[in-house]
Specification:
This protein has 245 residues and is an alpha/beta fold. It is built from 9 helices and 7 strands, in the order βαβαβαβαβααβαααβ.
Length: 245
């Protein structure tokens, strides 16, 4: 992976920052995308550079195609063609289907699905010119099995899995692989905000008996981004401690 350029959307979250760190350790140069958290983005850039890898920090609203396209162009101009795209940006809005605010539908679908399509569309041409590329979409087990109160999130992640399969077949002859990683419950700021009772209920659902560490998601992403994963495409990998069997 030495010298490859990787773009990670939503890089400042728990999973995103772990992916950034793991890819930099594996030898990639990194485009750190952020929407609002510039402080964490700068910390990630500093950490990447400390590993003697190049880094570029880009602010963008990934629900706007012109900003996504500009981000890809900035990456190409300053670091080189984007070889590895990690569509990780996402939001969560929950609630019973008859009560969840209608505007949340657009918020979740735009951020979790539309943005991944935009970034894929903008990055593919450069990958095709090089005859090599890796696109990895961060989905969720909720998109595979569902979860009460998660109609919006589940729809967005199921859509992402469906997009993964179709784009993988479309690009297979170009030397580009497209896969999805579907985390289960991962230690993050979102889960840390849950009550002790909710956390206990969640852990009871997980056969392995605990939440995932963000680094456990990142390690699979790094493998799928590597040359060794060239025969894997169109697949979805659940990293969930056995929730989906």
């Amino acid at each position: 992976m030495l010298g490859k350029v990787a773009l990670v959307t939503g890089a400042t979250g728990s999973i995103g920052s772990s992916i950034v760190s793991a890819l930099a350790t594996a030898g990639a140069d990194i485009v750190v995308h952020y929407h609002q958290n510039k402080t964490v983005a700068q910390q990630l850039v500093d950490a990447i550079q400390a590993k003697n890898r190049r880094a570029l920090m880009v602010q963008a609203d990934v629900t706007r195609y012109n900003e996504v396209e500009s981000m890809i162009q900035q990456a190409a101009a300053q670091l080189g063609n984007v070889d590895i795209l990690i569509n990780n940006a996402g939001v969560h809005r929950g609630g019973k289907v008859q009560k969840v605010p209608l505007q949340d539908w657009d918020t979740v679908l735009n951020t979790n699905l539309r943005a991944a399509f935009y970034a894929t569309r903008a990055a593919v041409e450069g990958m095709q010119r090089e005859g090599w590329g890796r696109i990895i979409n961060i989905a969720s087990v909720v998109g595979i099995r569902g979860f009460p109160g998660d109609a919006l999130y589940g729809a967005s992640k199921a859509g992402l899995i469906g997009m993964t399969k179709s784009v993988a077949l479309e690009l297979v002859s170009s030397g580009i692989t497209v896969n999805a990683v579907a985390p289960g419950f991962v230690k993050s700021a979102m889960t840390e905000a849950l009550s002790e009772r909710s956390l206990q209920r969640i852990q009871q659902m997980i056969p392995i008996g605990r939440q995932a560490e963000p680094e456990e998601i990142a390690s699979l992403v790094v493998f799928l981004a590597s040359p060794q994963a060239g025969y894997i495409t169109g697949a979805t990998f659940a990293v969930d401690g056995g929730v989906v069997t």
